[in-house]
Amino acid sequence: MNEYEAFIQNRRLNPPNTKEYLEIHHIIPKFAGGSDDPENLIPLSYPDHVEAHRLYSLCYPSVKANFCFLMMSSQTREARRSFRVAGAYATHIIAKSKKVGFFNSEQQKKNTATSLARPDAREIRRKAGQIGGVIVKQNIAIKPIDKFIFSYQNQEVLCFFNCSIGTEVLNDLKKYQLQTFGEELNMIRVSPLLTGKRSSAYGWTCKKIIE
Predict the structure, then answer these.
(1) Any residues with CB less than 8 A from the CB of 134 and at least 6 apart, and which?
(2) Sequence-separated (6 or more) residues with CB below 8 Å from residue 197
(3) Residue 129: inside a domain, yes or no?
(4) How many domains does the chain have?
(5) For the whole model, what pTM was predicted?
(6) Among the three residues 41, 74, 107, which one is the final residue of a domain in this structure?
(7) How far is the C-alpha of 4 from the C-alpha of 26, rounded, in Å?
(8) Confidence band (pLDDT; 50, 70, 90) for 20?
(9) Which domain holds residue 165?
(10) pLDDT in tens, 62-98
């Protein structure tokens, strides 16, 4: 076992703090035929990533190995992070323009069909929607301390409070319209009403109660 292999083994046995900024290191570099298989990948802190490339270039000297080490050692952690963000954003733009992956409608249909085929699909989607609504800017449309009066066809019918996500409000609006009028409410998002971006939608209006 050489110095590089010993270093990798040590980091496998003593993984870094997951709260740190981490980078994925290819144990066998891509330029040396390494793959993206999980067994060839290891998360490292930025200083350890630089050290890994230094040791690799010493144990397996080559022009490419030395180039990788010099490139990494001349950059700061902040520079590396910004490169990764810029790269992710560029990949996002390319995927969107080519309509591949997430942006491919056929792939989306397949993903949805696979998800809905699960016996616990409804419960999983409900929980995911709640978590997403809370996490994304803590759901800026509505907070648990807010109170809203909703009117249908200019008649006040519902009061909402202690809601943490807009989905809760939307589901109750749909339930009310179905039970009271026997009609399906096709509203997809209630946040435009809650934030005042729309004054009405499908016959519904709302106003925030200021106390």
Answers:
(1) 164, 165
(2) 191
(3) no
(4) 2
(5) 0.42
(6) 74
(7) 12
(8) confident
(9) 147-208
(10) 888 888 888 888 766 666 666 667 777 777 788 888 8
Q: Which of 74, 106, 136 is the last residue of a domain?
A: 74
3-state secondary structure the chain: CCHHHHHHHHHHHCCCCCCCCEEEEECCCHHHCCCCCHHHEEEEEHHHHHHHHHHHHHHCCCHHHHHHHHHHHCCCHHHHHHHHHHHHHHHHHHHHHHCCHHHCHHHHHHHHHHHHCCCCHHHHHHHHHHHHHHHHHHCCCCCCCCEEEEEECCEEEEEEECCCCHHHHHHHHHHHHHHHHCCCCCCCCCHHHHHCCCCCECCEEEEECCC
pLDDT digits (tens, 9 = 90+) for 120-141: 877 776 666 655 554 444 445 6
Q: 2, 59 in Cβ contact below 8 A? A: yes
d(C-alpha 166, C-alpha 140), whole Å: 9
